[in-house]
Fold this sequence. Notes:
Arc Repressor Mutant, subunit A, Jelly Rolls, 4-stranded antiparallel sheet, alpha+beta, globular, single chain
Amino acid sequence: MAKRKILVDDTRRELEEHGTETFPLTVNHDDLWMFEGKNVPIHWHQEIEISLPREGKAVYQIYQNSYEISPGDGLLVNRNVPHNCHSPNNERAKYTTILVRPDFLYGDFGSDVERNCFRPFLQNSAVPCLCIPGTEAWGKEVLEKLEKVDTLFYEKPYCYELKIKGLLCEAFFLILVHQQKYQTPFVPANQVELARLAQMLDYIHTHSESVISLEKLGEQVHLSREVCCRLFRKMTGKTVTQYLEEYRASKSLPLVESGQYSMTQIADLVGFSNASRFAAAFRQQFSCNPGEYNSRKRQEGR
């Protein structure tokens, strides 16, 4: 079975359309093992994303924080927020993903609903995500409504579109009221930082097979090496070196699966300085050595 990929542009913005122009919402039943490298790489999109684990645990990396969610809980990722997802210890993780364009809920930009309810959340970079705990009354009610959205989306009874919109509006009422209680200071979203991250990622991906100079990386965004590194860690939760090694390890998968190359050859092809460094990075990401990967994959496919 072909592995799923997240198609992105040079800024890491996801290119796939979620829903249609007239019904900008979709519900996916995702399995991390179906993605290349068994993880969802860093990306962002203009839709709000809600993750509802069904089996196993999912770990979302959002800026410098990791959020581990299990069945019975949920996580809402704000729009335009770079994020990636993996499972702890390379275990299987299945989850429902709801992606919805915000204007589907608030209508026209500038409306009272947009200005008074959604804007303080959507444009607040201090709230990149929200946990939805099933152990709390408000969270349990939200999750029940989201489960109904999932069911309606796949069963598609008459007027399901209207019912889904109503359920989501009720769910977001509970979410936004709960968030407002904490009176999180409003920090305007920094589009400059997002653009700089996109430039750095593009440079890293383009030059991943060679030695990457942090000074050169900083020059791409007109920042010093130190400021560049701080910004990258702030936006991804990883150092440049950590991210680069994970990216190179992911790129090595087709070469490992082919069985045609030695460890030294693969290390050289994807940009590692030596086979030991490659093996360590691969083991860190996939919980096994490159030599064990294919045999483990065959066992999992049985």
